[in-house]
UniProtKB/TrEMBL annotation, chain A:
This is YifB family Mg chelatase-like AAA ATPase. NCBIfam families: YifB family Mg chelatase-like AAA ATPase (TIGR00368). Residues 211-372 form the AAA+ ATPase domain. Belongs to the Mg-chelatase subunits D/I family. ComM subfamily. One of its GO terms (molecular function) is DNA binding. Pfam families: ChlI (PF13541), Mg_chelatase (PF01078). The keyword ATP-binding applies. It comes from Nannocystis pusilla. Keywords: ATP-binding, Nucleotide-binding. It comes from the Bacteria.
């Protein structure tokens, strides 16, 4: 008997529906999976067979073919396991095939039949809603993430027997109510109020947070460039609904965390300067988002800017301008959103003391020029605010006395 | 400082309502949107043009400075209408805040 169930796969930050067809027919006994399954999904055969066995549904010793349509798109997430299992159960007439209509299935099976969450649940829920599905079955742990959007009945599934009972109508699974997770205690955020001196640099950070501009801080080592940059994130208001949805989708696709609701904090990504171009922009065998996309709607902090490879720095030019990064590989192309703000820090010369009020730079001019030329003109052209951070004078670093604090509390 | 930033963001949202953008930095240069949404007073326009010519800045740099000047106007403490053009002082400060590292 030929049966169908529905799942989805992720391409970039969008999902597309995958129809899983199962057929039991004559031929040598075995389970064949066709339709460009790759990576972890290749092993779905073994997981599904074992999970079904452990739940008391042995496959008939006949030829079983499972097809994943559209057959020309590559599918690599084990989240399709559950749909494969359900299509097979329906073809063995364990569950009624018509109950699988309008239901999207998303979860990875473990060998004992329990369901694990798979990455990218929010993207899948969005896809299900757009394509007119009425319900979505996911692992219990990712039910909160799936229910964020609304407009879908989200069924939290613990294990395969529970879903079988639901599909047979023996014991229905109640739809998961979207409950707002208790507000997390706000991150330990440092404001810039307790930073002394560095007037110009503080102003630059303020402008950056207010208007979404790109900022370059340059100055001698140890004056507080990195400290300022790390505090900048504390000035940002939380993400609004639309931005939070975009950021949560990207985080989900990257498998960064099991999300319980939307990401509300403005992302701050600070890759080390040894990052590769694929790590920064995205790519890899399964086209994952890179640091620029993970910093979408947030801040990408590049400390020691000239130390980044030339390829990385030049590759930033296009996303800085367009707000998206289009990764093209032989297999296909995919666009990731990357509307990030660049915050960069650098020393003015290799020794770091060029322009220092008290110390002398020991580098020869050619070396200084070479160092500064590592950051190209076109990249600097895309920086809105650039300030030189000079060491704070000792008197402005001192803790304010009671009198000066009283003064500060005035009109400021 | 956080209150100032929040207020500046609110002013931008009010001005950019009905457009796909949320912050000054996102306003594109194309089709005159930047002249409309990041307007400058005549004196400020003159200052920007003169400095750009003096330092040989690209149109992109000028547009970026225009946006920064707009943000500075949004950050200002006074009760200027959020649609009023950015003043000369804002442009001057924006110019001051663009000190790229240079070999001496």
């Amino acid at each position: 008997m030929l049966t169908r169930s529905y799942s989805a796969s992720v391409l970039g930050v969008e999902g597309f529906v995958v129809t899983v067809e199962a057929d039991v027919g004559l031929g040598l006994p075995g389970l064949t999976l066709v339709g460009r399954a790759s990576g972890a999904l290749m092993e779905a055969r073994e997981r599904v067979r074992s999970a079904l066995g452990h739940c008391g549904h042995k496959l008939h010793p006949r030829k079983q073919v499972v097809n994943l349509a559209p057959a020309d798109e590559r599918k690599d997430s084990p989240g399709i396991d559950l749909a494969v299992a359900c299509a097979l159960l329906a073809s063995h007439e364990v569950v009624p095939a018509e109950r699988l209509q309008g239901l999207m299935l998303w979860g990875e099976l473990s060998l004992d039949g329990s369901l694990r969450p798979a990455a990218g649940t929010l993207v899948i829920a969005d896809c299900a809603r757009r394509m007119g599905f009425t319900s979505l079955a996911v692992a219990e742990a990712s039910a909160d993430e799936a229910a964020v959007l609304g407009g879908l009945a989200v069924l939290p599934v613990r294990d395969l027997p529970q879903l079988v009972a639901h599909l047979r109508g023996d014991r229905e699974i109640g739809a998961h109510a979207a409950n707002d997770p208790p507000p997390r205690p706000p991150r330990e955020l440092h404001d810039l109020e307790d930073v002394r001196g560095l007037v110009l640099a503080r102003r630059a950070i303020e402008v950056m947070a207010a208007g979404g501009h790109n900022v370059l801080l340059h100055g001698p080592p140890g004056v507080g460039k990195t400290m300022l940059a790390r505090r900048a994130i504390g000035l940002y208001p939380p993400l609004d609904d639309e931005a939070a949805l975009e950021v949560t989708k990207i985080f989900g696709v990257a498998g960064l965390r099991a999300v319980d609701g939307l990401v509300r904090e403005v992302p701050l990504r600070a890759p080390h300067h040894t990052v590769s171009v694929a790590g920064l922009l995205g790519g890899g065998p399964f086209l994952r988002p890179g640091e620029v996309s993970l910093a979408h709607r947030g801040v990408l902090f590049l400390d020691e800017l000239p130390e980044f490879s030339r390829g990385c720095l030049e590759a930033l030019r296009e996303p800085l301008e367009e707000g998206v990064v289009r990764i093209v590989r032989a297999r296909g192309s995919v666009g990731f959103p990357a509307r990030f703000q660049l915050l960069a820090a650098m020393n003015p010369c290799p020794c770091g003391f060029l322009g220092h009020p008290d110390r002398t730079c020991v580098d020869n001019p050619a070396a200084v020029l070479r160092y500064q030329q590592r950051v190209s003109g076109p990249l600097l052209d895309r920086i809105d605010v650039a300030v030189s951070v000079t060491p704070a004078r000792p008197e402005s670093c001192a803790r304010p006395t009671h009198r000066s604090r009283a003064r500060r509390c005035g009109p400021a | 400082m956080r209150t100032r930033v929040t207020r500046a963001r609110a002013r931008q949202l009010a001005r950019l309502r009905g457009t796909p953008w949320r912050t000054n930095a996102e306003v594109p240069a194309a089709a005159g949107s930047i002249e409309r949404l990041c307007a400058l007073t005549p004196a400020a326009e003159r200052l920007l043009a003169a400095t750009a010519e003096h330092r040989g800045w690209s149109p992109r740099t000028q547009h970026r400075l225009r946006r920064v000047a707009r943000t500075l106007a949004d950050l200002a403490d006074d009760d200027r209408c959020p649609r009023a053009p950015a003043a000369e002082a804002d442009v001057a400060q924006a110019l001051h805040l663009r000190a790229l590292p240079e070999a001496e």
